[in-house]
Design a protein that fits this description.
Ribosomal Protein L13p, Chain: A, 160 residues, globular, four-stranded parallel sheet, alpha/beta, single chain
């Protein structure tokens, strides 16, 4: 690693990448994003240090699930798997198990589907919150991080 890539004290300077998620499969995209956020794509990866990079995802509301396509008024990538999938969480109170179907979650907050997929692929420790904070999701094709001069995601890191 060049000295220019390192910050003061030998720390690395994180890069900024931008990804267009239009038509990408949720799980495959989330796997690649989690790898970049953890820093596993870098040669100086260390599990207990946050060495990951920032990722900006545009068109995060246009991701899709695998499965056969179905007709839907508002969501062009609606599939049979999205009709069956539901998200479950527990509030911590008695009888506090809650469930929401994927299509209802998409209608309420379309970027939350990708956020939950990436969050569940990160390590289950205190460092995961810092990693997830480096994920920036946007509904449309525009984002507010032009000042960071994000690069397009390299081909070896992009989902296939």
């Amino acid at each position: 690693m060049k000295a220019a890539d390192r910050g003061p004290g030998g720390n690395h300077q994180p890069k900024w990448y931008v990804v267009d998620a239009d038509g990408m499969t949720v799980g495959r995209l989330a796997t690649r994003l989690a790898t970049i956020l953890m820093g596993k794509h870098r040669p100086d990866y260390t599990p207990h240090v946050d060495t990951g990079d920032y990722v900006i995802v545009v068109n995060a509301d246009k991701v899709r699930f695998s499965g056969g396509r179905m007709a839907h008024d508002e969501f062009p990538y609606f599939t049979t798997k999205m009709a069956k999938k539901s998200y479950v969480w527990f509030t911590g109170w008695p009888s506090g198990q809650r469930t929401i179907p994927a299509i209802d979650l998409w209608a309420k907050n379309p970027t939350e589907i990708l956020t939950l997929a990436v969050k569940r692929m990160l390590p289950k420790n205190a460092l995961a919150a810092h990693m997830l904070a480096k994920l920036k999701l946007f509904k449309g094709p525009d984002h507010t991080h032009q000042a960071q001069q994000p690069e397009p995601l390299p081909a070896h890191l992009a989902p296939k």
